Amino acid sequence: MSSSVDSFAAPMKGDVPNDSQRLKNYIGGKWVASTATEYLPVINPSIGQEIAQVPLSSYRDLDDAVMAANQAFQSWSKMPIKERAQIFYRYKVLLEKNIRELASLVREENGKTMNEAIAEIEKSIEVTEFACSAPQLAGGEILEVSKGVECRIDRYPLGVVASITPFNFPNMVPNWTIPNALVLGNTLILKPSEQVPLSACKIADLLKEAGLPDGVFNIVNGSQTIVEAICDHPEIQAVSFVGSTRVAKIVYERATSHLKRALCLGGAKNHLIVLPDANEEMTAANVAASMSGCAGQRCMAASAMVAVGNVDRIIQKLCDEAKKFIPGENLGPVISKKAKERIEGYIDEAEKQGAKVLVDGRNAIVAGKENGYYVGPTIIDDVQPEMRIAREEVFGPVLSIIRTKNINEAIAIENSSPYGNAASVFTQSGGMARYVIERASAGMIGVNIGVPVPREPFSFGGWNESKFGAGDITGKSSIEFFTKLKKTTTKWNPESKVNWMS
Ligand code: NAD
């Protein structure tokens, strides 16, 4: 068993494999054994081996966490925001100090390369920096609205909130919500992905080391049942979710049916429109990195390249660039055996339907890691817009090339997708770029950028079926999500007349 798992794990039971340990929940500042009767294996996808077991926690576990979070809320919410921010300055320094250990945990449970894992922690650091600036951004307003009458607006935290996260960024996505929600005075329950629950444990340890009071941050492990319990729990005020569109819809509907505030980010099918005047080298390198980085398991990954007119030279260069991503070297595995089979199934089906596989990543085997779930970079040409591979989220290092005659046809293909996370255009023409920016139906647009993630303080969030709920998950938008406004009208002038607004 990996030594990094030790501190978060319950004592081994007789029926657990020797090299594996059962994870605990984190409630009220303590590691607490779950009352679960069932555990799931956590698999290191690089080698296909179990590294821990994660509990499918019970409603009772969640209830204990909500009680702890509610109790902590009483004093945490009353602490001045500038004092709360001090804890996140310390947390940021701890993220920096522990960057390699945090990245190793990400690598162990998710499989991404060390460079990718470090980049993920760097984004967590950037989001924490934003949270440190909350005192500068979350201030209220005050105005004398008529003689002797003053209106003021103050922000209040919501109470206990929950964050439900996916497998592809075990450290970064939890950190999209943790620092912002907490600095604004809420207390939080994190339900990490059952496939990658280890990074969250280290986050809890670092928050404690930074001085976060017990009960402000809690972890309840599990999957569907615990997510449903979060949506239903009467004392959880808001739910933030990141994951697939199918589940985002379920969580949004269920949480809001219990009158909770909800923001649910879903899946994606990102189109990169490539025009014949695009810079050949730069376009090829960017598109290859976008489709292959994190083994294509990014909601911002290039999934379809819409080739306008003759861009054959760029496609040739793109194939050369994609081949530079070598499984087991600079290309990690996909998350599970099931994911590998699903991804290769899409490629098989497209090929049978007449698409041309230019670079084939099927059946990738890495020496010494034969049980890992590797898929090599794959580029498929002549994909038709109605094929399943062109419409659905593949979530692997696979790029479909769809040929079009002109820019309007390309934009129509992009906009026919039910998703709307990201879209990019590659061109040297400012006018053409503007034309696409104005028409693409997506929340995050790139011009000559393969992965157009907005950096803080710009907020992150897609459109259409890539996001349900108002606002975005990071940046200033998160201040709106995690606070409610109190409007106070005060009259200090005893002589003033009583009128319609008194
Ligand atoms: P997922 O939807 O399977 O799981 C996400 C979370 O939902 C997990 O914590 C899981 O335990 C829980 N869950 C799973 N099934 C559930 C159900 N039936 N009811 C209630 N809860 C359930 O997603 P994943 O496979 O972990 O992550 C990959 C997906 O996340 C991709 O679709 C990707 O595009 C998306 N994603 C989106 C963004 C974004 O910003 N839009 C960011 C990262 C990942």
Structure overview:
By secondary structure, the chain is an alpha/beta fold. The protein has 16 helices and 22 strands. The chain has helices at residues 59-76, 81-97, 99-110, 114-132, 134-137, 172-183, 198-209, 224-232, 245-257, 280-292, 312-322, 337-352, 388-391, 407-416, 430-439, 475-481, and strands at 9-10, 22-23, 25-27, 30-32, 39-44, 49-55, 141-146, 149-157, 160-164, 187-191, 217-219, 238-242, 261-265, 270-274, 302-308, 356-359, 378-381, 398-404, 422-426, 444-447, 467-468, 483-491. Strands 16-17-18-15-14-19-20 form a seven-stranded mixed sheet, sandwiched between helices. Helix 2 runs antiparallel to helix 4 (114-132) and helix 3 (99-110) runs antiparallel to helix 7. Bound molecules: nicotinamide-adenine-dinucleotide (NAD). Nicotinamide-adenine-dinucleotide binds next to helix 8 and helix 9.
